Amino acid sequence: MNTTVLVVEDEPAIQELLATTLVRAGYDVQRATDANVAMDSLRNTLPDMILLDWMLPGRSGLAFARELRSNPRTKAVPIIMVTARVEENSKVIGLEHGVDDYITKPFSPRELLARIKAVLRRRAPHSTDDAVKIGSLVLDPVSHRVCAGDKSLQIGPTEFRLLHFLMTHPDRVYSRAQLLDQVWGDHVFLGERTVDVHIRRLRLALQPSNHDKLIRTVRGSGYILIIKSI
Ligand code: CA
Q: What pTM does this model have?
């Protein structure tokens, strides 16, 4: 599954520049011209990141960022604010409202991609290509392989994404709804039992090396990957 970025920008030339740069770098792009269109898009699918223009018609980017942060469905999605303002205080105001980073127009494609990568690495490590290691268990997003020591484990694509998310967010309980949002990218069309089915498959895939013990069921809450358990 590609990393998806929602671009919220009303100026066609800048929206096009942002979208083209992202598509060339291998991202999937969704576009919106204002906060209302963006909200419709977010109701259908959750992106991995939002690039949000500060000056939008209607609700400002800043007001929209605040709204996204107070909405349980969208509060975890990283936001990079795109701004023409260079004043230092716009940066401070943005960061106070839960914006993860900001980029000032005009920017180079290279700078944009570097910032996106840095924020994803910090906020959504399961959206980057970095290998993850817990004990002898290693997950490599580039080769799409999971190894325990020198043994390669057979794992399906959904179980791979689920394990990637859990390994990059250890020692925290996630509800089934949160896992659907984070791993499937959309909770709208899937039931929570889907999560149980794939957790069961994931544990089976991890059994040969005893790493199935990493994943615990928390009754009434969800699932957790506990690092200490190996
Ligand atoms: Ca604008």
A: 0.69
Ligand 1 centroid – CA 182 distance (Å): 29
Outline where the chain has alpha helix (H): 12-24, 35-44, 61-70, 88-96, 109-123, 157-168, 176-179, 193-206
Distance 77 CA to ligand 1 centre (A): 21
Rounded to the nearest whole angstrom, what is the distance from the C-alpha of residue 39 to the centroid of ligand 1? 17
The DSSP bridge pattern shows strands 222-225 and 215-218 to be antiparallel
- Measured in Å, residue 76 CA sits from the centre of ligand 1 at 24
pLDDT in tens, 78-111: 999 998 766 566 666 767 777 888 888 888 999 9
What domains appear along the chain, each with residue ranges and CATH number?
4-127 (3.40.50.2300), 132-225 (1.10.10.10)
